[in-house]
Every structure is written in C-alpha cells, then in structure tokens.
Amino acid sequence: MKEIASAEFDAVVSEAGREWVIMSGLERSIFNKISRHKALKDWDISIYRGVVTGYNEAFIIDEETKERLIKEDKKSADLIKPLLRGRDIDKYIYHNNGLYLINTHNGIKEKNIPPINIKDYPAIKKHLDKYYKQLEKRQDKGATPYNLRNCAYLEEFDKIKIAWQRITSENKFVFSDKGQYILDSMAFISGFNSQELAYYMLCILNSNLILYWMKNIVHEYGSTGFRLSNQYVEVMPIPEADSKTKNNITKIVDQIITLKKQEKDTTPLEKNIDEIVYSLYGLSDEEVKVVEGK
C-alpha cells in the first residue's frame, strides 16, 4: 500500500481539529503509515457520551442505599444499574467503586418506550423526594423532575462497550460489560459485533503507538493532559487484521485483564501488544525507536 500524499495527511490532521507542526522525515513517515488506515468511525461502531443526571447526589447511590431500596421494594432493582466513573478506570480495567445509577430514564419516543413512572417505584420516589427542590430546578431533566434527560441511545448501555475518560493524561481505554452505565465525564464506543473485535480495538487504543499519535494530534488540556473528545477518537486510524492475529490479541488482552485484576505486572504482555501493533501499522525499527523516544 502506497503512502498517502502530504495533502491527504494534512486533511486527516485537519479533521482531528489541530494544525500540524513541522516534522522530521521519519515522523512524517510514521504518520503516513498510521493515517492510511480506516478511521475508527468507519468501523460500523458508534460513539456516545455518558449519562448526564443534572444532580449526581440524588441519582448516584452506594451499595448500602441500593440494598435498602431493594429491601423496601423489590421493583427498585429494575432501575438500579452499576455505574462507571472516569476516576475509576485504568488501562484495560476499572476499579469497583460500589456505586450505582438510579436509571429513572425518560423513555425512547422513537421506540415507544415510555418514561419511567416514579409512582411505580415507591422506595425510589421516597429517596428522590429528599432532593426534590434540586431535581426540580435542574435543566437536565425529563418529563418530570424524577426523570433523567432524554437519551436516544439508552439501549447501548446494555451492550459491551469500550469507555474512556474525556480529560486524561494518557490513553486509558477500558472494556465495559453489558448493563454497566457510564457517567458523563466519560464517553464510550458500542456496536461491536463480537467481544473479539472489542478486545482487538481495545489493544490498539491502549497501545504505545496511539499514545504517540495522541501526543502529536490531540490538544493539551492545561497540566492535566489531553481533552480526548469524540472528534479525536473517531478519527483514530485502526488497521485491519486477519483472524489469526485478532484471536492472538484477544487471548493476550484477556490475560492482561485477568492479571491486572489480580494486581500483577502486565508489562511483558503490554510490550507484546505494542510489538504487534507496530507490525500492523508497518513501522520500521527506526520508526519504532522514534515512537518510543529512543
């Protein structure tokens, strides 16, 4: 495959929203090799923002409150969903925070799904009533102060996902299980036709090469790091791979996730992933040294 022309390369960078700086020949070669691959948005997936509650104190509860609400009314369990926040994630894994979202959603009009009627959930209504003044004043609300704002992609939370924190110091992408909700400090990718594809993309997104891409493309955000908004993630170039490579990567990612949950060192496995990724993008040994700062 031939390298893309300078004009084509500049168009890719422009689409990400950042003017380019002068590069060395090796650097331009690296970005030509990265940018010739299909953008993530063209992989038949979708990117969404996490849930906006308008008043977290009311809608985010801990384990003790969850158990109490279910004890008072078993139907409460239907609306209480495990919740993931940006501060809880690391590369590949998230740390259990013991927090849940009260999902008094506002329905999906296009699919004839009605808003939650709070009267059907007396224990949850009693809990939210403690915050009624604040709920009533908030802008992000649905049909009633008890309902969350409209969310047309509500059903996407019931699928496997890849999530990330939008303000971050590095590329920390994590696999999110079905039924886990994502808070609005984060964004997520869904629409994967298999867990293998999700794991494949997860390894690419967490790779050292994508971090290099981020450092050169994504706008810095003060001393915190990067504002990794959807406009950047959706244009990240993702290479195709054969089924053997995807299967191999899936096994390695599964090992990494298992070991990280056990708080064990995964450096050798992540190094292995980086080597596979360099190969998928066709980088030379000299170009790898540039990426790794050697």
Automatic annotation (TrEMBL):
It holds the Pfam family TaqI_C. Transmembrane segments: none annotated. Keywords: Methyltransferase, Transferase. Residues 81-238 form the TaqI-like C-terminal specificity domain. Signal peptide: none annotated. Its EC number is 2.1.1.72. It is an enzyme of class 2 (transferase). It catalyses: a 2'-deoxyadenosine in DNA + S-adenosyl-L-methionine = an N(6)-methyl-2'-deoxyadenosine in DNA + S-adenosyl-L-homocysteine + H(+). This is site-specific DNA-methyltransferase (adenine-specific). It comes from Brachyspira innocens.
